[in-house]
Amino acid sequence: MSTIEFDSPATDVDVLADLSAAEITAIREIVADLLTGTTRFVYVGLDEPDKAEVLAHQAGTGPAPERLARVLLLDMASGVSRDVLVSLTHGAVRTSSVIDTARGQVPILVEEFEEVGTVLAGNERWCAALRTRGVDPESVVCVPLSAGSYEHLNEQGRRVIRVFAFRQDHPQDHPWAHPVDGLCAYVDIVARELIELVDYRIFDVPEEPGNFQDPAQAGPPLEGLRPIEITQPQGPSFTVDGDQITWANWKLRIGFDAREGLILRQLAFRDGGEYRPIVYRASIAEMVVPYGDPSPNRFWQNYFDTGEYLFGRFANSLRLGCDCLGEIHYFDATLTDELGMPRTIENAICLHEEDYGTLWKHTDMFTGVSEVRRQRRLVISFFTTVGNYDYGFYWYLYLDGTIECESKLTGVAFSAAYPPEGSPYQSEVAPGLGLPYHQHLFSARLDMMVDGLANAVDEVEVQRVPVGEGNPHGNAFTAKSTRISRESEAARDADAAVGRVWHIVSTEKTNRMGAPTAYVLYPDQTPTLLADPSSSIAARAAFTTKQLWVTGYSPQERYPAGDLVNQNPGGDGLPAYMAADRSVDGTDIVVWHTFGLTHFPRLEDWPVMPTDYCGFTLKPYGFFDANPVMNVPATVSAHCGPSESSCHGG
What we know:
Helix content: under 10%
Radius of gyration: 27 Å
Structural class: mainly beta
């Protein structure tokens, strides 16, 4: 149905490939004149070409776009940061500019996090505050965190990190169980000085350990669990060629970025002998963890794990049988270390397929036909550890054309001292130990391409029909559809009461019934940002205030909270993108979906949190002319009984 083809065989330049180790080495040489002994590489990533250029090149109607890399540099001695665009095609710096830090700082370096402990260990005010609480400074680990933006005069123009203290009783002791609360240090990491010490209250340090790996605390091993082995004697059904994956009727490419982590590109589904495009690019473009405790030392806790911390660089090396089970294909990720050298995260991405229960089934009362088919899905995932939390991001592709994204949250919830008088903002999970209430809010950037570039979004919801002419018995209800025409009306709320969903439709292609081909976004019905609209975090993370945003496509508009999130005062990102009030009806559009969960921690979440889940689903709606999986073969399994050797019946 669509004339647009992804990844034409004639393509001779892999324009969307991740940067290779050789290219990263070349980038360091190209920018050598901009480096000093204290310059660090904050971020290096592919500067993706304009979609139109990529598609033209893949169709054989345009040249290969210039291969560009974006480089963010920070001089740790001066605090001066640079935004550099490097041409790998020409081996030269294309542009280089000093960043105006009034609109945000570059993300935080691991080296800066590590430096904080040294700065505070030599500060007598900090050490004295610890001793006042009966804590030996030698037993303290510092937890450095992004500062946010609060118009503090003594922070203007500074690169600030805020720091909590935790006591660690021995090398295998998890310090999260022993917060040294009522205390917080504000550190200028460039000047290497304490600029403010918040010391408003002395709490007893909780004593009970949180060492979940210790048999004395975890208890004896659970007995009776027998091994589950996942086998595919004939091998997996997918094939991998570089970064391209084909499975069943699906074809796509994957990538990995230090900021966004896993990227899915050019998802297409084979129908009638050709691949029809659905999504050009999908990623988790931002996430923020806003905390709800207004205490004087923690009111500022709001972490952008993508824009401030670059969560992709903390990806885990996954282990067979532990993180991934079955017939697995792993992909390594090549990133840049802070000295500008290539580094490899082995087994960063896991690819496998898995059974997912019943695909379809019917036993017919008239014909006696009884048929059932098994569903399966392709799973593409990675896990990243950002401080205390561990996040897994799983993309699922199903045989019937469904796309699903699931975030898995586990690790250790951030802790505080629980006040003896109680707190309306924390859960007490151990004697004197509280876990503050918080949210995890993610933004999926979905560069849609349903049967081509001309797309629009219809908001569809149920509508009751009152008793009256045409509905005398009052049983009727119908669907109401509203086209979103411009960006000024394209920030939308979910509403479970009316079952609100969003249809991403082609404005050029129709199905056999004459309706637009479409995919439907089904949101989770969970709260958006709970902070007050006047708060700093509401300005900085405006994307969290609505579940859906629709913008016109622009290659420069990559991140929903803006480009430089660290210490950004707010106003960048989606509100700025949408200020132009572009048409989003029948054009190239990007859908941004906010999803997440609100966490009121349970006792069962301590000392390590069982995995929690959130996500969303994209389903075909009139994209196919009928059920696309009627032709899935019946299962023949050695696990069936003699009379149940296949799923045919009747």
